[in-house]
Specification:
The protein is an alpha/beta fold and 571 residues long. Helix content is 30%, strand content 25%. Helix 3 packs parallel to helix 11 (420-434), helix 5 (152-169) packs antiparallel against helix 6 (185-210) and helix 5 packs across helix 8 (284-296). The radius of gyration is 28 Å and the shape is globular.
Length: 571
């Protein structure tokens, strides 16, 4: 067992460390370059102990060693010992005994204090540590943020289970006698919780010690532009990162506050399957969870105010997804006006108007999935001089800096694209700018968006309408999924590929897909959009036959050819 596993792991020599109780001697923080792993930490510690250093703490990620010397005159000897061990000693400072190892220089407790512990927070922390920063992290609730705890991980795990259950009962192949018994939702949820717990531990909690972060439990509240208070403790920092995420928004529907409705978090904790479920809102969260319960056996009604699902997406995408979901037996209502909600015992009634006709949707469970709202309440951002927008979101510039130059924000709290990979990208940008001396702009020009329905929806870049509003002259191709050989082999042909390109340069501007594994296919389109590939570039590539990715090449061919009149694999 190695005795040195990150900051705070201290090797003590004897029971009376020199100067520990007497106040004599000096405590030194020494820069040490050239360390790359925990074995290096051991070598440096051994070298320092060999010249009489006590209470030695070494951290290779921070490029530093902290230790006690009985006399300041021994510092040169300590540096020589480090050099003889094969490392490069640098500047040294004497610090007051009892100064926390996590404390930062410059008169602050931390170089970077992060409020929140999700994807943006940990990405920023890890990057900041690589720059030698001392990092604190404040968390009032469960470590890990939305994605691992109540978002991406649990929902996709449950979606996979639901898909298997659905295919066992209903598939397109003759001669297969498959069936599915009653769903034990309690067991599925318990298994899901096990996975969430494992990933939270290994991908978040364990990294706190690994990277030498100091976790501060409690709710942070700014008391001035350079300090927060957490449960009565005043904490200062050179720079701050607000990464508190977002939570479910509650729409203004009469009676909703008096009804036992579910949000996305509560829906994933249900232990009994509702016979009938209605969903208010049909964005990606409502669509995924609605289909999840449908595939497990609930009768599901999706309700949407706009004229179509995924209103901001290409019309072909909306139409294809709606058609697929209806084929599977889901009820989809669009153009809905909500007149009110009421509850009678366990029964919920949603009164709506559709196409001028009043209707009442009676269900056992009601899921509200009508968007997200930034988690900024309680931060006292006015005291920090941090501006917020109309939805409570933290307003940032292209460098993710707020109206207070010492405070940055990243992830869902800015109400940008609500994806953990965007949050992680932004967290890294913040660390580089806040403590790395950089001036890096955040680049969200080629952000893939995936809705994990069946079939899945994946998009990147501009829609045709967005490109035209930007003043571009565009061309587009629309390829029905029935023209993709893999879809024919799967006997699932409801879907579409649509590509949008600049009419002059034929550079790809956007790709939009409704198909099985669309989320895997879209990455090739992300590269094409980001690096300016043309329609001809896509055509000239070799696409493996009988993969869904072949649809990208076929869609590129569709700009100028009728692929229905080509042989298999013809390019």
């Amino acid at each position: 067992m190695r005795p040195f596993r990150g900051v705070g792991l201290t090797q003590r020599m004897g029971c009376c460390a020199m100067g520990e109780q007497t106040g004599q001697g000096e405590r030194v923080r020494l820069v040490v370059k050239g360390m790359t792993c925990t074995s290096c930490e051991e070598h440096v510690a051994t070298a320092l102990q060999g010249v009489g250093a006590q209470d030695v703490v070494v951290h290779f990620r921070r490029d530093e060693a902290t230790f006690d010397l009985s006399d300041a005159g021994l510092l040169a000897l300590a540096k020589r010992a480090v050099q003889d061990a094969g490392y490069r000693p640098g500047d040294a400072v004497f610090v007051a005994r009892g100064t926390p190892l996590q404390g930062a220089q410059g008169g602050h407790d931390f170089d970077l204090l992060i409020i929140g512990s999700g994807g943006a927070a940990f990405s920023a922390a890890i990057q900041a540590v690589s720059h030698g920063a001392r990092v604190g992290m404040v968390e009032r609730g469960t470590i890990g943020g939305t994605c691992v705890n109540v978002g991406c991980v649990p929902s996709k795990n449950m979606l996979r289970a639901a898909e298997i259950n659905h295919l066992a009962k209903d598939h397109p192949f003759r001669g297969l006698a498959t069936s599915a018994g009653p769903v034990d939702l309690k067991q599925l949820v318990e298994q899901k919780d096990e996975l969430v717990g494992e990933l939270r531990q290994h991908k978040y909690i364990d990294l706190i010690a690994e990277y030498g972060l100091e976790l501060v439990r409690g709710e942070a509240r700014f008391v001035d532009p350079g300090a927060v208070e957490v449960d009565g403790r005043r904490i200062t920092a050179g720079k701050f990162l607000i990464a508190t995420g977002a939570s479910a928004a509650v729409p203004a529907v009469a009676g909703l506050q008096d009804v036992d409705y579910l949000d996305s978090t509560a829906a994933l904790e249900l232990k009994e399957l509702p016979e009938r479920l209605a969903v208010i809102g049909s964005g990606y969260i409502g669509l995924e969870l609605g289909q999840l319960f449908h595939q497990l056996g609930s009768r599901v009604t999706l309700m949407q105010r706009s004229a179509r699902l995924l209103q901001a997406y290409e019309p072909e995408v909306s139409d294809a997804l709606a058609a697929a979901l209806r084929e599977q037996g889901m009820e989809i209502l669009t153009g809905v006006t909500y007149d009110g909600v009421e509850q009678d015992g366990r029964i919920k009634r949603v009164r709506i108007t559709v196409d001028g006709e009043p209707r009442v949707i009676e269900v056992d469970a009601l899921l509200v999935a009508a968007g997200r709202t930034a988690n900024t309440l309680g931060l006292n951002l006015d005291a920090a001089g941090v501006a917020v927008g109309d939805r409570g979101e933290v307003v940032v510039d292209e460098y993710l800096q707020t109206s207070n130059p010492r405070v940055y924000a990243a992830g869902d709290v800015t109400m940008g694209p609500q994806f953990v990979y965007v949050a992680a990208h932004e967290g890294a940008v913040v660390a580089e700018n806040a403590v790395g001396g950089g001036r890096r702009r955040v680049d969200l020009t080629a952000v893939p968006q995936v809705t994990f329905t069946r079939p899945a929806v994946a998009t990147v870049g501009l829609t045709e309408a967005q490109a035209e509003r930007a003043g571009l002259e565009v061309i587009s191709s629309v390829l029905p999924l029935a023209a993709v050989p893999r879809a024919l082999a799967n006997r699932e042909t409801t879907g579409v590929f649509k590509l949008v390109a600049d009419a002059g340069t034929r550079r790809l501007l956007g790709a939009h897909i409704v198909a099985e594994n669309a989320g895997d296919v879209i990455y090739a389109a992300v590269l094409a959009v980001k690096f300016g590939l043309t329609v001809e570039d896509l055509r000239s590539t070799l696409a493996p036959y009988l993969t869904m990715a072949e649809g990208l090449k076929l869609a590129a061919l569709t700009f100028d050819k009728d692929v229905a009149k080509l042989s298999c694999c013809a390019g």
